[in-house]
Each structure stands twice: as structure tokens, then as C-alpha cells.
Fe2OG dioxygenase domain-containing protein (Apophysomyces ossiformis), 333 residues
Amino acid sequence: MEQGWADIELSKIRVQIFEWSLKKKPLLQATMASDGEALESRILRVAASSSQLPEFPDDKSDLPSDYEYDPNEEEEVEEFEEITENELLQYLDQQENPLNIAQRLFYNEVNTTQSQAKCADWHLHCLSPKAVEELYGHGWTVMDGLLNLDVLKGAREEAEQLRKQGLFCQASELKSDEEDPFRDVKARDDAIMWLDPASKTLPANLQKILSFIHGPLHHDLASMIQLKGRTEYQLAYYHPENARYERHRDAFPTDDPEDTHQRRVTAICYINPQWTPGDGGELKIFGRPDMTDAADRTIHPLLGRVVLFLSGVVDHAVLPASKERFALTAWMR
């Protein structure tokens, strides 16, 4: 059936929502909803309002017979409300468990009896089969003892020197691009510095950690998960006056193997010597009722500890810190 100028196909709207979501825009504007209107209705309406409709007909004969046009009639002004990124994630999660989506990027199901029997054939350089199974089955895993302690302590000293040199900037004041005008400046207190592994001025011990992530760690992950894009590296500092980062997710869930825009795996390495309970700055991982592990977990930012999680799956936060806290994060695509 030929589409009229005012028709919208619902299936196309859903495709547009999915394509839009992969771009990870932080805010969506929708027409003001009535009380109690479902989030899905709000999102579908904004997709419809932004769709490219056929041009308005120039020939009046093409208009419906009951159409009346009054040039003096005032145009109705629409009110707008904000749909946040978290609301969009909530909507997408209702359509399908994000862990199920991310698991489709793995080359094989790694938590089956048959797969576990062949784990010796995985040829892992640094990850254990258990860590891979946890990443696949729960969306996250924690590992200790992967890096040399002297390198980690040296990296901490180098990070402190970089901060004293004024090379960090407040993350809340940065914008990723011109299409990100609605950044929540109150959500995070950390200062950050982007690291380039190809830089000749990068301090030696920090370079060794990046080489480990780019080398053995990336090798193991890429042998299990489809990774085809670049990796970003960031050094973050949390001041001891309750600096924190509120609940968030690093990416939207995706199972498109050709998508190199969305982050797929987040790797965090902590460089905090002599951390003790009470120092704060723990990583909180939020459980989900539709996942195997539904309980919230708190992870201590111990020296050398490495945390891996699927970027489009795990909601997490940094709890208030009462002691200076440094973390090096890599996002693999």
C-alpha cells in the first residue's frame, strides 16, 4: 500500500530508535506526555516526530476534501520534556536482556560443558578460563596479580606527577562533541587525562600497563569476543573529599559485529597502594533481577586489581572517596 504523507510505519520507528541508540546520545526530547504515559509511547512519539515524512503536497487537490487552511491561525507551540539516557537504557533493557545481546558478540558460548572441556584450546595469555566464563555469564569479572607490583607503584608516582603538572582536567567540564549539550555536570567529580600509547612522552610505568592491556589482555579478549575498533585509555583521579561518579553505563548494548562506535569491553586497573576499608572509592556494580547474579557488588580498588566488564551491560558507580584514588581505564571496541 502506498504511504500517505501523514503515515508513519511503526516498524520503521523502532529501527530508527535502535539506530539512534547506538550513537549514544545523552538526551532525547519528546512531546510533553500526559500523566502516566508509558516510556515506550514517549519514545515512539519522538521517533515519529523526527522521521522524514514525504513533502507536503504543493497541489491543493492532493489534500483531503475536509482540509481547511487558515493563514491567520496561530501555530500551536509544543511543550517538551526530557528523556534521559538512563530512561532510554531502561526502555532498551525491557526489550531484551543486555547480557543476552552482548553474548552474541562472543565467538562461542563459553559457559557450556562442551566449551569448558576445550578451554585448554583457548590459548589464553593472561586471563583464566574462569574469568572468561564469568565475563560471559555475569557480564563482569575481577582479577589480581596480573601486573608487577613495582610497575604499579611506579605508575602511581607517575600519575601523581602528571596531576601536579596540571595535565588533568575535570571530566564534568568536557564535552565529547557538539551534539552533547546536556551533560550532567553533577554526576561525577573525577579529573581525567587521556593517554596515547604511541606517545614518546608517556612515563615508563604507565606505558608498561598500557602495553599489557593492548598486548596480552587484548589478545585474550579478542580471541573470545569480536573486537574490531580502537581502544581508548584514560587515567582518572578522585580527590579525597568524597569525589564520586554516580550510577551509569559505558555504552548502549549492541550485538552488531561491524559496529566500531560502541564500547564493548571496559578494563580498569587500580593503582592505589595501601588502600584500606574506609578509604572509599569502591566500584559498585549493580545487579539486575533478570540476570543470574542479581545482587549488588562492591569491589575494592586495590593496587594491581583489574576489573573487566561488558560495557553495554553493567551499570556501575564509584562510591565517595576519602583518600586519593587513581584508576587507569581502557575501553575496547
Q: What stands out?
A: The radius of gyration is 24 Å. Helices lie at 10-21, 39-50, 85-95, 98-103, 113-117, 129-138, 149-164, 204-224. The CA atoms of residues 209 and 305 lie 12 Å apart. The longest strand covers residues 231-238.
